[in-house]
Amino acid sequence: MGNGKQILQRKIKNQRKRFAQLLFMSVLFIDDFHEEFAVLGSTGNIYTVTIKHVPNCTCPDFGKGNLCKHIFFIYLKVFRLNRDSSFIYQKALLSKELRSIFANAAPDPTVLANQRVRDKYKTFTSGELVSDTNGNENEKRRPIEGNCPICYEPLEEKDHKNIVWCKEGCGNNLHKDCFEQWKRSKRGDKVTCVYCRINWEESGSELLINEEGYVNLGDVQGMNTIRDTTSYYRKYRSWY
């Protein structure tokens, strides 16, 4: 057990930077010994971490028999357990241990996903439309005038169907075709506004069930949804 714990401790230490890419979405109280958490993974996939007598996660890494980083994340950032706590490395927990873990929960506010992501997820899981906390977004849009910042050709109101605008930031307009070229130039990086560089929101692209079968809200959070494996700790299997 000691050797196995040391391996897991090294795994946490070497993957600590990747913890910064995880975000806490929501918690569902089932009973005194069962709580479920939605976790936004490093590429925007949403995984369900269940802390009960036998903790589990819906991610592929846990499915391969590994104690995944999403479970570690909930233990360390939501329940605020010490990294040396024996609870973290146990495959099963006693009722008294669960009581102790749940009683001392103090979620780190810095790991909470943004409000729009949480609203989108709530809409998806409950079927209830959550009101836009930003009010009437069209009030943010600038008049269609001047020149496109990419092609420098005029922007005209009559061509409004072929014009997109920055909904999350400055409200400025540009040609849709020009913006598509801008997106392609990013080559997998976050797509930002040409003007203000804020992460770009596109209607209809926010909620996605990807080819892995997971709901992915990376676009809403402004995350790169393409997995970067170059920083994985080679001695261990890839973490999702």
TrEMBL record:
Pfam families: SWIM, zf-RING_2. One of its GO terms (molecular function) is zinc ion binding. The keyword Metal-binding applies. Residues 148-197 form the RING-type domain. InterPro entries: Znf_RING (IPR001841), Znf_RING/FYVE/PHD (IPR013083), Znf_SWIM (IPR007527), Zswim2 (IPR039903). Residues 47-79 form the SWIM-type domain. Keywords: Metal-binding, Zinc, Zinc-finger. This is SWIM-type domain-containing protein. It comes from Rhizophagus irregularis.
